[in-house]
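Recall that a protein's primary structure is simply its ordered list of amino acids. Everything else, from secondary elements to tertiary packing, is in principle encoded there. The following example makes that idea concrete.
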Amino acid sequence: MEIYFAILILISFFSMLEIAGVGILTQKFALICFSLICLMLGGLRYNTGTDWISYYSYFIQGESFYYFINNNFEVGYALLNYIIKALTNEYNVLLLIISFICVMCYYKCSVYLTRYGITVAMILFASDLYGIFPVRTTIVAAMAMLAYVLIEKKQKCYFLLLVLIATSIHRISIILIPAYWIYYRQWSNIKIVVLIIGSIIIGYSNIIFDFMSSITDIDSIYLSKFLSYSERSAAGNQFGAAVDKEKLSYYMVAFKCFLLLIVLKYRNLLEERISYFNGLFNLFLFGSCIYFLLVHTSAEIAARLTGVYNMSQYLLLAGFMNLFRRTEIRLLVWIGLFFMCLMKLFMKFITLPDAYIPYTNILGI
């Protein structure tokens, strides 16, 4: 466990310097070095991570194109496994490529959409370990951050191509399609409050589950997955976690509501000081409403479906630094953010202790 907290302390030190006003070149250099550290840890790991048993077995046991394609994984991820298996037969090469995709997407988004890229990296490390242990959901969540950049640049064709590629890795990425339209919408505060309250009420009334259960005659893999996760959640399945995910979801709902209220209070000031604020807030709002609609049915479904929108939350958290002109106040806010990251990282290890501890690699270090 010590290695993870040591890395968090390292990136937090540079994040603090960033808040204090260190130069852009120093920020980029620190972010590149941190990205390379996480890339190496991700590419060299062995028998560590939530994905190891199922993903490693899938790769090792595969001997033919037919085997990879006719398994439970999406075609893009299956093809990537097949190509790496055919060319190198080394699982760590696959891990290195996947970690590179995540790290590259994080870096591109962090340096383009925010002044506080290192602070975003600190939050990403506490939340998703910055590409060290990417599963398909975290891969497409990282790709979603790159999609934000394409949306901001108004590169619609590239955005749709990226969504198509991401969907071939994990089908939940299809939910990103409306992001391009959502990003440029303008919502009044009253409409936003109505959306939030309406989503919470509908979600906790079980209307979504009742509706999905009533259309079981439709042959859809999405519907089948939804009902499967819903029934498993209702039966108390924690999906490998050592804590009750349903109880944790209540804290997540409270946190999202709190963050939404803070944003609404300072919305005009944030729009003035952050050029990309409105688009990122729209994405966060949309993801939060989906979360509110689904969390009572299944916290697991809600978390998985909103992962591609949840990344905007991390950018907004770092963006709050723009509210304060005085360095001393920014540092005080940063201290609160740092302790939040410590808590998130600690909770990750409590939730899935056997997946990350101890960290082992092919070098035996």
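Residues 195 and 210 are 21 Å apart (CA to CA). Confidence is low (pLDDT under 50) at residues 238-243.
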